[in-house]
């Protein structure tokens, strides 16, 4: 791997091996003489490509701790929607999208007839179908029955939320509830619409969302889909979405006498290409992560960590959601939030970074929060303090990590931007 080049010598009276007779003492043994010759012989080393490879591979590769999402956190759904609305750049082909939307509106009457004949409608095609389907719901379906719209693209959506939205139909809650489980809710919904004069039009945007892909979710919604008096209007975007249902479920017609016990989904497929951008659907995506709009974008990062203890629901925390949470808690809890928020706001001012929201440098240690709460007569013991923090932690308004790398204590911070946190504290002060 290493080549040695001897220095040639044509000077003086050197011998053939490159040294004079006086260089070797006559009393020196042959082995010592040869080693002395080798040591005094000038050499040059040249690293080969193989040497360079092993030298490079011997170094430890370390991942940088400068995470982009901590330096510039993603926009919330409200901020993303506001930025899109104020954007001076139009969509790629607004005229063509408007023409397609106008063409689809002409088929609203046909869609109504198909629904009344016992079919369910599922729409596919490139582009957001949300606006067209919402127009269909408000212009055509609302006159004929009850309308419930479900936004499946929201990461925090659950099957329980879908059932609760349906139970808001006037008169449905008056029926007795056999049990508080999902089966009891499904039974009451099916019984109500089986005798109701006004059917239910259930619109589900992004029916191929992760919340609807599990076998448990499909089994839960199957009684609603197969009910003759409940009409499903859904949209899909995933190319493998048809694999969610078997061929028998897809092709079997609904039975007019069924109360939801059948398995006939009776899907009719319609191309609803609009070429419109997915602005609303993508507003809930985590643009700093390759996982995209997976449930609980920030919560997944916290809960997957060994020390993570923060409980955050799927959607990103917004200013409006924070106001609703603060309005529903006690005055002591509001004082505690204001105390933590003011401390974090001061840390942001000192750091001079208006965007960082998840850095441990901006967090406050739990021990310090406890001392401040005790001094201000907010909580006198650990149990009372954790009880006050529990509501904020469960809703994601306050994030708690297991331990700090410096002091070993739990850390608390509020996952809001500097300007939004300042407005929220000002709102809390005035209320």
Automatic annotation (TrEMBL):
- For this chain's UniProt record, which GO biological process terms are given? DNA replication
Which stretches does the entry tag as region Disordered? 1-39
Q: Which GO terms describe its molecular function?
A: DNA replication origin binding
| Alphabetized UniProt keyword annotations | DNA replication, Nucleus
Q: Does the keyword Nucleus apply?
A: yes
Pfam families given for it?
Answer: RecA-like_ORC2 (PF04084), WHD_ORC2 (PF24882)
Provide the protein's localization: Nucleus
Give start-end positions of Polar residues composition bias: 29-39
| InterPro entries xrefs | ORC2, RecA-like_ORC2, WHD_ORC2
Q: Where in this chain does the record put each Origin recognition complex subunit 2 RecA-like domain?
A: 99-272
Which terms in the GO cellular component ontology are assigned? nuclear origin of replication recognition complex
Query: Is this entry keyworded rRNA-binding?
Result: no
Q: Report domain Origin recognition complex subunit 2 winged-helix positions.
A: 358-419
Family membership, please give it. Answer: Belongs to the ORC2 family.
What role is this protein assigned? Component of the origin recognition complex (ORC) that binds origins of replication. DNA-binding is ATP-dependent. ORC is required to assemble the pre-replication complex necessary to initiate DNA replication.
Subunit (UniProt): Component of the origin recognition complex (ORC).
Task: From the Swiss-Prot or TrEMBL record, give the protein name.
Answer: Origin recognition complex subunit 2
Lineage of the native species? Eukaryota, Fungi, Dikarya, Basidiomycota, Agaricomycotina
């Amino acid at each position: 791997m290493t080549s040695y080049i001897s220095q040639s010598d044509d000077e003086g009276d050197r011998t053939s091996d490159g040294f004079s007779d006086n260089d070797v003492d006559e009393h020196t043994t042959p082995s010592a003489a040869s080693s002395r010759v080798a040591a005094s012989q000038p050499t040059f080393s040249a690293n080969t490509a193989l040497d360079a490879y092993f030298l490079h591979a011997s170094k430890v590769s370390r991942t940088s701790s400068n995470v982009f999402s901590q330096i510039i956190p993603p926009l919330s759904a409200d901020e993303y929607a506001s930025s899109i609305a104020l954007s001076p750049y139009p969509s790629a082909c607004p005229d063509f999208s408007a023409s397609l939307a106008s063409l689809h509106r002409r088929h609203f009457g046909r869609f109504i007839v198909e629904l009344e004949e016992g079919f369910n409608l599922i729409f596919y095609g490139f582009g957001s179908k949300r606006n067209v389907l919402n127009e269909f719901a408000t212009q055509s379906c609302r006159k004929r029955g009850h309308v419930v719209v479900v936004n499946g693209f929201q990461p925090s959506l659950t099957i329980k939320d879908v059932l609760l939205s349906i139970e808001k139909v006037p008169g449905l809650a008056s029926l007795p509830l056999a049990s508080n489980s999902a089966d009891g809710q499904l039974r009451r919904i099916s019984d109500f619409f089986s005798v109701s004069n006004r059917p239910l039009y259930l619109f589900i945007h992004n029916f191929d969302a992760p919340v609807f892909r599990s076998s448990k979710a499909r089994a839960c919604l199957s009684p609603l889909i197969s009910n003759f008096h409940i009409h499903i209007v859904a949209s899909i975007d995933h190319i493998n979405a048809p694999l969610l249902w078997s061929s028998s479920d897809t092709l079997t017609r609904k039975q007019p006498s069924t109360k939801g016990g059948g398995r006939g989904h009776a899907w009719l497929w319609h191309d609803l290409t609009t070429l419109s951008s997915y602005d609303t659907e993508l507003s809930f995506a985590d643009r700093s992560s390759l996982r995209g709009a997976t449930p609980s974008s920030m919560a997944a990062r916290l809960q997957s960590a060994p020390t993570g203890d923060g409980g955050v629901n799927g959607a990103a925390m917004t200013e409006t959601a924070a106001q609703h949470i603060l309005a529903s808690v006690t005055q002591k809890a509001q004082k505690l939030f204001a105390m933590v928020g003011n401390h974090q706001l001061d840390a942001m001012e000192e750091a001079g970074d208006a965007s960082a929201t998840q850095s441990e440098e901006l967090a406050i240690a739990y021990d310090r929060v406890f001392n401040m709460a005790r001094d201000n007569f907010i909580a006198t013991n650990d149990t009372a303090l954790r009880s006050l923090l529990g509501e904020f932690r469960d809703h994601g308004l306050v994030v708690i990590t297991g331990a700090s790398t410096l002091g070993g204590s739990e850390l608390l911070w509020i996952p809001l931007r500097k300007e939004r946190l300042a407005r929220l504290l000002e709102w809390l002060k005035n209320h």
